[in-house]
Amino acid sequence: MVRQKAVVLFLPYLLSNIVLADKLSGKYIREGK
Q: Is the dihedral of CA 21, 22, 24, 28 positive or negative?
């Protein structure tokens, strides 16, 4: 149960990090071109 709770808490953090990294990489790609 503890592991399940940890996963539930960690998933939104992971998703927000992916979105942030995607925005940053998109910005760098646009500036590079």
A: positive
